[in-house]
Amino acid sequence: MTSSTGTATDPGVDPVDPVVLLAALVDGLETTEATIIRLQALKETHLAVAQRLAEHLASESGSGVRGESVELASRSVAAELAGVLHMSDRVVQARMARAAELVARFPVTMQAFTEARIGPAHVRQIQDAGARLDDEARVEFEQVAVAASVGETAHRAKRVVERVAERLSPRSLTDRHRDAQEDRRVWREELEDGQKMLGLIHATAVIDGIFDRLTQQARMVQVANTQAGKDDAGCGIEADALGDPADDRLIDQLRADLCADTLLTGTPSGHDTADGLLSAIQARVEITVPVLTLMKTDGDATGTAAGATGSLTGASGSPAGDSPAFGIGTEQPGEFAGTADGVNGSRTSTATSTGSPGFGIRAEQPGELAGGQPIDTDTARILAGGATAWERVLTHPVTGAVLAVDHYRPNTDLRRLLHARDSRCRFPTCGLPPTAHDLDHTVDAACGGPTEEGNLGGLCRRHHVLKHQTAWKVKQRGAGVLEWTSPAGATYIDRPPSPVTFTIDEPDPPPAADPPF
């Protein structure tokens, strides 16, 4: 092996053995990464000290309003540091303030950062999620968030971090969402070469629905184009037919064109047929909703979600109008997980009852889109309100593991069960949602592997190919737990992500009353 400077480097191993060399590379990168993280933590400490110095200089000056003098002192110090960091002083000033907050308000996170147990991406999301918490709640939040982040990628830890922050937040996601919706907007940005970018900020479910509908329409156009190429063997194509054999646009280009058609004309008329096939396509959004979150709590603790009352009665284990346990509000766990097709279309979803939350936990829990991004309860209720049917996914009352689905059959129901269990790619460090999954046989079907839950796992295409085309190996360890073995011999255990479940220890039953005489 030769370095970029031409100096020969001896790795200290037999270069003929690639497995040993790979193991040495892994060890070297692990050490290097830990050193880099410690230096990044040290840099944050320096920036925090710079902010404290600016505050000290402001107090020493004794002039002007306190807030203004601190800001000016911070600006001055930031400008000094910007020269050696080769960054904008505005950026440096913002980073100084953020670093000072990290050191002062997140000591557990900073300690883990200094010890290289978590990286800067973990630190950012812990700090962002915990920023809205008071001092008492933040202490509890930090302990759980850091523990969830150690040994995991920031992307995969994000769901736990945000859930804990939401549970402890003084304001519910629904309240914050209502405020944030006031800032929804559309804007334009200039690009090069005669292009512009159109941006849209709106509710999560709305954006996902828009993107999904455009994707479905674009795929229909691609299929029609392919079919038109087969049918155009001298027979001609109808004028209003959907599909053009000469259309070679990529799916991203089709999504952009269809979006422009819809926004400019109200319907995708530039591509649609006389029967309106494309305009009839409705968006499909996969959601997970705590069962009792579907009940209204604004002044009515016994209200129910419109259009879902019957299913709620059966799924939650008690009538929809019953009061909740422990005197906590009605928006409590148990969960529905599944899909909502369109704004007024049919929905097929799954429901799970898992018990009431414990003391000190926020009663209202948000719904989640597939992949874990939370949505406000108002939107969750709207998506659930017109559902024609709910289908249950049954989970273990303690662990939350998915056990079965109603009407269990191969194919559709098995896929639904696995989507509920594997709500992300099951390769370590990957977090792609179920819509991007292949259902992979751990033991290949060609080798006799059965098509059943215990031999299947959701893998994104990248890691599905990795499993089959490289020396990575995987085994099923039961209950959906996968054991991966790398080419260098390292093992990684991947457990199914926990759904939105909260459990409590039931108190001992009261002693039986004495029988009457």
Measured as a percent range, the helix fraction is: 40-55%
What is the global morphology?
globular
Record field, number of beta strands: 14
Question: Main sheet, how many strands, which sense, barrel?
Answer: 7 strands, mixed
End-to-end separation in angstroms reads 93 Å
Over all CA atoms, what is the radius of gyration?
28 Å
Widest β-sheet, arrangement of strands: 7-6-3-4-5-8-9
Low-confidence stretches: 1-8, 298-359
Report on this structure.
- With 517 residues, the chain is α+β, with helices and mostly antiparallel strands.
- It has three domains: 18-171, no CATH class; 172-188 and 196-281, no CATH class; 284-403, no CATH class.
- It has helices spanning 18-61, 66-85, 89-105, 107-114, 120-130, 135-149, 154-168, 173-180, 204-231, 251-265, 309-316, 377-385, 412-421, 461-469, and strands at residues 185-190, 196-201, 284-289, 335-341, 347-352, 367-369, 374-375, 389-395, 402-405, 437-441, 456-460, 473-476, 482-485, 491-494.
- The strands form four sheets. Strands 7-6-3-4-5-8-9 form a seven-stranded mixed β-sheet, sandwiched between helices. Strands 12-13-14 form a three-stranded antiparallel β-sheet, with no helix packed on it.
- Helix 1 (18-61) packs antiparallel against helix 2, helix 1 packs across helix 3 (89-105) and helix 9 (204-231) crosses helix 10 (251-265).
- It is globular and about 85 Å long.
- It starts with 17 loop residues before the first helix and ends in a 23-residue tail after the last strand.
- The model is unreliable at 1-8 and 298-359 (pLDDT under 50).
